[in-house]
Amino acid sequence: MDKETNLSEMADLTKTEEQEVEKSLDEEVEKTPHTLEADSGVGWEGDSSTSGTVHSTENEKEVVSDNQDGRAKRKNLDPEDEPPKKHEVGHGQAVAAHYNELQEVGLEKRSQSRIFYLRNFNNWTKSVLIGEFIDRVRRKKNDITVLDLGCGKGGDLLKWKKGRIKKLVCTDIADISVQQCKQRYEDMKARCRYNEHIFDAEFIQADSTKCNVLEACLFQDLLSSKYNDSDMRFDICSCQFVYHYSFETYEQADMMLKNACGNLSPGGYFIGTTPNSFELVKRLEASETNSFGNEVYNVKFEKKGEYPLFGCKYDFHLEEVVDVPEFLVYFPLLEEMAKKHGMKLVYKMTFREFYEEKIKNEEHKMLLRRMQALEPYSTFGDSRLVSDKPDDYEHAKEFIKDGKAKLPLGTLSKSEWEATSIYLVFAFEKQL
């Protein structure tokens, strides 16, 4: 192991703990009314799984994204279950408002953020994931069309430009975020040299979890009714730190999948990042209260012991970036639901597993340095660290003491790692 990192030294979900969490979630499946399976056509068996999420940002130099990639979805309840109006508009509009109100800040201010390296690490994870599947598609064709489902303020635009795609459709629930994304694209386009290629783009404000995406829908209100070309087919759908918002109800989660997968070409990919339900429940059960976290992040559930498959809400707070309700995603259920839309799982990995696999590639390692995705640490005290807590770097001290690393060592503070390790990456492929 060289100076890139000692993240593998940090604790992760053990197999025994994972199985215990899986058992509690499977017990919830047994208690779930059979009407869910009857209505949805979803039958499934729980299997061991891990997941993950983190909200990240990036500037035009791919150092850090301004994109708050979580794009929450508005509340969708069956008419017979509809609560008073104040609840109907509360959740979705509140989350959309949260992301609309987030202010863009300059590079200097972002570099002083407590979660500067965490955000860059998450952004690196997205960059590697996106780059991998652009390469997979390009083995089969050159003209690549992409749907960015939950585009936010456009934090991934530069990734798509570097991937030399042909067409991009960006959609998000937050209207101001979509406007900022469009402006960011126009600014990027204006900076291009005369002969420099940049993709064409469309920008759509829409709630991709709801049936009323457009009033003029025919048959089913899918996002495709808003495209300029309703017959458009995508090679990749990217859904970064977004999908968990759809798990408020089965209908919303399924509609999100329809929008993500329904317009994919055969052999196309649905890729993304989302929180790891097993890791979240494990940490909750280990806590003495209904919440857990540190000074960087905090997760609060309504109660322990009951984890419904849909609508299992928790409040998530991430320093400076996120402070909104989210919903637990049981990944084996997502996998079975995706099969109904012709999708087959390519892989799912925790952020740690993904890092340990991809860092073996020298290009990914160089990108990690360029994006400043790890904090330089040495025992000489010659640099200011983002955390003042002594135990936040104990893992790094031990790694150096064992003579396993060159200095400075690249790492994340313990607090940041605890925050980012609640997430996973996933990829599905559309079957022929």
TrEMBL record:
GO terms for molecular function: mRNA 5'-cap (guanine-N7-)-methyltransferase activity; RNA binding. InterPro entries: mRNA_G-N7_MeTrfase_dom (IPR004971), mRNA_G-N7_MeTrfase_euk (IPR016899), RG7MT1 (IPR039753), SAM-dependent_MTases_sf (IPR029063). Its main location: nucleus. Keywords: Methyltransferase, mRNA capping, mRNA processing, Nucleus, RNA-binding, S-adenosyl-L-methionine, Transferase. The keyword Cytoplasm does not apply. The record marks 153, 159, 184, 244, 326, 423 as: mRNA cap binding. SUPFAM superfamilies: S-adenosyl-L-methionine-dependent methyltransferases (SSF53335). The keyword Nucleus applies. It is found in: Nucleus. Catalytic subunit of the mRNA-capping methyltransferase RNMT:RAMAC complex that methylates the N7 position of the added guanosine to the 5'-cap structure of mRNAs. Binds RNA containing 5'-terminal GpppC. This is mRNA cap guanine-N(7) methyltransferase. It comes from Falco tinnunculus (Common kestrel). The lineage of its organism: Eukaryota, Metazoa, Chordata, Craniata, Vertebrata.
